[in-house]
Specification:
single chain, about 350 residues, alpha+beta, five-stranded mixed beta sheet, two-stranded antiparallel ribbon, 10 helices, 9 strands, about 10% strand, disordered C terminus
Length: about 350
């Protein structure tokens, strides 16, 4: 308000000085006089500000933004009211929990700034700046928690099993290929006569659902997205990973060679990965039988890719891999009427 008052008084006093033929510098004298009238000790600096503010007011119909509170005394694109309005409008249009710094940065650089004719080189932001803008506007990256997780990695029995596993793997290291720390070039093992190179193959599984969402999303203090009650349709992926080739699968050239063979001479599958869609009216849930079928296929692919080598098969620990013999006694498969007495005897034992 002080600057606007100073400009107003400056314009009125300058008009009076211009009518005086003895005043050679009406702009300078009027601005200095207004600076002294407003009690500014550095009158020359404040006088220059008054003249600058007048020109800015004529061009933009408003005074320039104050640098008070600006970081290092510098303006940012977010200080532009038009940019700020476009940013707020974009954020308000996004679904709860879908805001990401990357997409926000892309929208600012490709939509908001070009629309305001601010698309030159210096008028763009990076992803780090987008994060700072989100924080400045009241957003924070929060954890979206659902359910309870219990960490059992430090149980005594787990620690003992882990130690035994590492001791056993140490015995196999002599037969396994190593890699240079800098170039990642393979260093073949030094084998004695009759020994073969060993290759570690790690098995892993992962389950997805249609209603899976990101665990961390950008939200304001009082916001929390509403998640669907059900998980949706499930997707289960089981795959094998080996050091030399990554995923246990044939290359495009090897697939082409296989297709040239007779059907009975080809491999049953070109890729060891198995994807199912378990659920009601869909595929059966993953179990030991399906894992055994997948492993048979994986062994055939491994022997084709790495002949004369030994595979160390490391299976993922899962309750779905537990199994019983076909003729084993299983309470879940018994009918109560026929085997009621047998159930009682087993329970008593």
């Amino acid at each position: 308000m002080m600057h606007f008052t100073a400009v107003t008084q400056y314009v009125q006093l300058r008009a009076r000085f211009r009518r005086n033929p003895n005043c050679k510098k009406p702009c300078l004298n009027a601005s200095l006089a207004i600076a002294r009238r407003m009690g500014k000790t550095n009158g020359a600096y404040f006088a220059r500000q008054i003249r600058h503010h007048e020109n800015y007011l004529l061009c933009h119909h408003r005074l320039p933004l104050t640098k008070k509170g600006a970081k290092h005394g510098q303006y940012t694109l977010l200080d532009n009211e038009s940019v700020l309005h476009g940013v707020r409008r974009y954020l308000a249009a996004q679904n709860l929990g879908t805001i990401t710094p990357r997409e926000f940065c892309r929208h600012v650089n490709e939509v908001i700034l070009p629309a305001l004719d601010l698309s030159e080189k210096k008028s763009s932001i990076c992803e780090r700046t987008a994060i700072n803008w989100l924080k400045k506007l009241g957003y924070a990256c929060k954890d979206v928690k659902k359910g309870v997780y219990h960490d059992g990695h430090e149980r005594p029995d787990v620690i003992e099993t882990r130690k035994n596993f590492l001791d056993q793997m140490e015995q196999y290291e002599h037969f396994m290929c190593k890699y240079d720390d800098k170039t990642l070039e393979p260093i073949p093992p030094i084998l004695r006569p009759g020994e073969k190179e060993h290759i570690l193959l790690a098995h892993d599984e992962c389950s997805f659902s249609t209603n899976d969402h990101a665990h961390r999303v950008w939200l304001k203090d009082n916001q929390q997205p509403l998640k669907a009650k059900g998980n949706g349709r499930g997707i289960h992926v089981s795959d094998w990973i080996c050091e030399p080739t990554g995923r246990l699968m044939l290359s495009q050239e090897q697939i082409a060679q296989q297709l040239q063979l007779l059907p009975e001479a080809r491999l049953k599958a070109m890729d060891a990965r198995k994807i199912i869609y378990p659920g009601k009216n869909h595929d059966a849930w993953w179990n030991l039988a399906q894992l055994m079928d997948q492993t048979k296929v994986a062994v055939d692919i491994f022997e084709y890719l790495h002949p004369e080598k030994v595979g160390i098969w490391l299976f993922d620990c899962s309750s779905a891999h537990e199994g019983l013999a076909v003729d084993a006694l299983n309470v879940n498969n018994m009918h109560q009427e026929k085997h009621q007495m047998l159930i009682v005897i087993v329970a008593a034992i």
